[in-house]
Specification:
Layout (H helix, E strand, L loop, with lengths): L8 H12 L11 H11 L3 H7 L19 H8 L4 H16 L19 H10 L5 H12 L5 H9 L6 H11 L3 H8 L12 H12 L5 H16 L1
Helix pairs in contact: 1-2, 1-10, 2-3, 4-7, 4-12, 5-11, 5-12, 6-8, 7-8, 7-9, 9-10
C-alpha cells in the first residue's frame, strides 16, 4: 500500500524536467506551452502533462465512448505482430478517422476521476484518458509488456492498496509508450533491468492506442478487424 507523501504537481513536473535534461522556466509555474514541449521530450502525451501538473484538461480530452475501449486489446493483439509498414498504415487510417467530424453521442462511460493521490492512481488515470478501463489496461499491458495482472490488481493499484513496483512500472511504461526511466524518475520506483525504451512495435502500438481514444466503438472495431486481416494475410 502507498504510504509515502505524494509529491505536489510542481515537484512532479520538476522530476520530469530533470529526466529530460531541461531547466524549468523561472518565476511562474510552467505554462501549457512548456508542458507540451516537455511531454514530447519524455514521450508522454500533452494531456498527460496537464494532468501531472494539476491543470484542467480541454473538454475534448474527455470525449470518450467507453465501450470503444473494449476493442483496444483486440486491436493491440493483431497490430503487434505486423510489419512496420502495416503498423504505419493502421496508424494513418486511425488518424484519418480521428479527423472526421465526431458523431453526436452520449458518453457511455465518462473517464473516472482519479483514485486517492498516488502514483498508481496517476498512471491508471492516464490510461483512462486513453479510454482504457481496468480490464482493458490489464489485457493491453499483458500483450505489450508480458506483465500480466488481473483487472482487480489494476483496481488495487488505482486505489493505492497495491504500490507500484518495478514489474508494474515496466507494464505501464509499455502501454504509455515511454522509456521506463521516465516513469522511474517521475515515481521514484527503482526500475528493473529490462531495456529502457519501448521496442519499435510497442512504441507504434502505444501511439496507436493514443490515436484511437476518441473513436467510436464501430471505428475501433473496424480498425481491429483490419489489423486482424493484415495479421492473418
Amino acid at each position: 500500500m502507498e504510504t509515502a507523501v505524494y509529491p505536489t504537481p510542481d515537484v512532479l513536473v520538476a522530476r520530469l524536467a530533470r529526466a529530460a535534461g531541461i531547466a524549468l522556466p523561472p518565476g511562474l509555474p510552467p505554462g501549457e506551452e512548456f508542458l507540451r514541449d516537455l511531454a514530447g521530450r519524455v514521450g508522454l502525451d500533452g494531456n498527460d502533462l496537464l494532468v501531472i501538473a494539476g491543470l484542467p484538461l480541454p473538454a475534448e480530452a474527455l470525449d470518450l465512448e467507453g465501450t470503444a475501449g473494449s476493442w483496444v486489446p483486440v486491436l493491440v493483439q493483431h497490430t503487434l505482430p505486423l510489419a512496420p509498414a502495416d503498423r504505419q498504415r493502421l496508424r494513418a487510417r486511425a488518424r484519418a478517422m480521428a479527423e472526421r467530424p465526431r458523431p453526436a453521442r452520449t458518453l457511455v462511460r465518462p473517464p473516472r476521476l482519479p483514485g486517492p493521490p498516488g502514483f498508481g492512481s496517476l498512471l491508471v488515470h492516464l490510461l483512462a484518458l486513453r479510454n482504457l478501463n481496468e480490464s482493458a489496461v490489464a489485457q493491453t499491458m499483458c500483450l505489450m509488456s508480458g506483465v500480466c495482472k488481473a483487472a482487480s490488481t489494476i483496481r488495487r493499484v488505482r486505489g493505492g492498496a497495491k504500490a507500484l513496483d518495478a514489474e508494474l512500472l515496466d507494464g505501464f511504461a509499455a502501454v504509455l509508450g515511454v522509456p521506463v526511466a521516465v516513469l522511474a524518475a517521475l515515481t521514484g520506483v527503482r526500475p528493473s533491468a529490462r531495456g529502457d525504451g519501448p521496442s519499435p512495435e510497442v512504441a507504434d502500438v502505444a501511439a496507436l492506442v493514443r490515436e484511437v481514444r476518441h473513436l467510436t466503438e464501430d471505428q475501433v472495431r473496424e480498425l481491429a478487424e483490419a489489423a486482424e486481416a493484415l495479421d492473418h494475410g
